[in-house]
Write a structure and sequence with these properties.
- The protein has 370 residues and is mainly alpha-helical.
- The protein has two domains: 296 residues, no CATH class; 66 residues, no CATH class.
- Helices cover 64% and strands 2% of the residues.
- Strands 1-2 form a two-stranded parallel ribbon.
- The longest helix has 33 residues.
- The relative contact order is 0.08.
- Its main location: membrane.
- It is a multi-pass membrane protein.
Length: 370
């Protein structure tokens, strides 16, 4: 196993760029980032324990999403894929997609913000909600800001001299990965899942935001495939001593075209999967709007009354407009009146002309005297 201890997030030693990494054995150590990930995981699990001890539920799927995100981060930053991404454009593009789409997606599905709110409780919960509803955070997570940000990040980091600068300066490479992670998280936060945010966008808005974001993926992918010169010549130069040919040392232009194809097909494919899932949720929506951040009481208040409720309240002489004001099943007096009314109606139906049984419990004094 080949271990490389990196000073930066990417971890590759710039003095050892000529050596071909091992496909399965190369491993890049990133002590600082790995420590941050470990601490974040411990804090997340502590929050889960606190929430469950308080008697509140926390789905296992959210916890699993957190661990999937951590595994994808390890693959992006520490595996042999991370090592090859410093030499091969197509490997670098896979890391890009992991950092800007898949890792943020599973972080959003893990719902760490909601977990923090529930674990803190009381005033802590109120502070979290106020923070998420602040003007700055609402703007930073609004598609009005995040869609142009996502577009600009993809275009400016792929179709300019940024890739060559990233190859020459490791700190730019590290900043690029952070930029991708933050951009992807801000972009997906209000559009996917049920995370606690300051927004509650409708399905059409969310669908349209994801749909138009496929444009930058396509533009970058097609441009890389059609460009007739090397955008980052340093990548090919770094593997000049490697064995020629094959997927690990293709021609420079073939490598660039493969990177474009990955961005186009894989990027649009991932976005299409999100659109399909969102469309399915949209179809299953029950007419309450999105309602993803409403409480159970709010959802109950928005629910339209059933046919049985309408019939029952009509029998009691109560208008449908006030249906949400009382719970008749919990009101003994109302329930007794309801049963008596049904008995009276039943007795009237048993006699011609609407005359009721004079011995029934609902009969009036005049009826008994008659």
């Amino acid at each position: 196993m080949e271990l490389r201890v990196g000073m930066d997030m990417g971890g590759m030693d710039m003095m050892d760029m000529s050596a071909q990494p091992s496909v399965w054995g190369a491993w890049t150590a990133t002590p600082v980032v790995s420590t941050i990930m470990a601490i974040a995981t411990v804090v997340y699990l502590y929050g889960v324990v606190r929430v469950r001890r308080a008697g509140q539920g926390w789905p296992v799927s959210r916890t699993l999403s957190w661990f999937v995100a951590m595994v994808l981060l390890v693959i992006s930053l520490n595996s042999s894929l991370a090592a090859f991404s410093h030499h091969l454009f197509w490997a670098h593009m896979i890391v890009h997609l992991l950092m800007i789409m898949l890792v943020p997606l599973f972080l959003v599905l893990a719902q760490p913000i909601r977990l923090a709110s529930m674990a803190l409780g009381g005033s802590g919960e109120e502070r979290v909600e106020r923070f998420m509803n602040s003007a700055v955070i609402r703007w930073l997570t609004s598609p009005v800001f995040t869609v142009p940000l996502y577009t600009a990040v993809l275009i400016l980091t792929h179709l300019t001299g940024f890739q060559q600068a990233m190859f020459e300066h490791m700190w730019i490479h590290d900043a690029e990965l952070v930029l991708y992670l933050v951009t992807g998280y801000l972009f997906l936060l209000p559009l996917v899942g049920d995370e606690l945010t300051g927004h509650d966008y409708s399905y059409p808005v969310r669908f349209f935001a994801l749909l138009i974001s496929m444009g930058p993926d396509t533009l970058v992918g097609v441009t890389l495939m059609m460009t007739g010169y090397e955008i980052a010549p340093g990548l090919a130069q770094s593997r000049m001593s490697w064995p020629k040919g094959g997927i690990l040392n293709p021609d420079a232009m073939a490598d660039q075209s493969a990177a474009g194809a990955i961005m186009w097909f894989a990027g649009d494919g991932l976005m299409m999967c999100l659109l399909v899932v969102l469309a399915w949720e949209w179809i299953r929506a029950d007419g309450l709007g999105r309602g993803r951040q409403k409480s159970a009481a709010e959802l109950q208040g928005d629910r339209r009354p059933s046919y049985l409720e309408v019939a029952r309240r009509s029998a009691l002489g109560t208008g449908a407009a006030g249906m949400g004001d009382a719970d008749f099943d919990d009101d003994d007096a109302a329930l007794a009146a309801y049963n008596a009314r049904l008995a009276a109606l039943n007795n009237r139906a048993s006699y011609p002309g609407g005359r009721s049984d004079t011995t029934g419990p609902a009969a009036s004094d005049d009826q008994r005297r008659g």
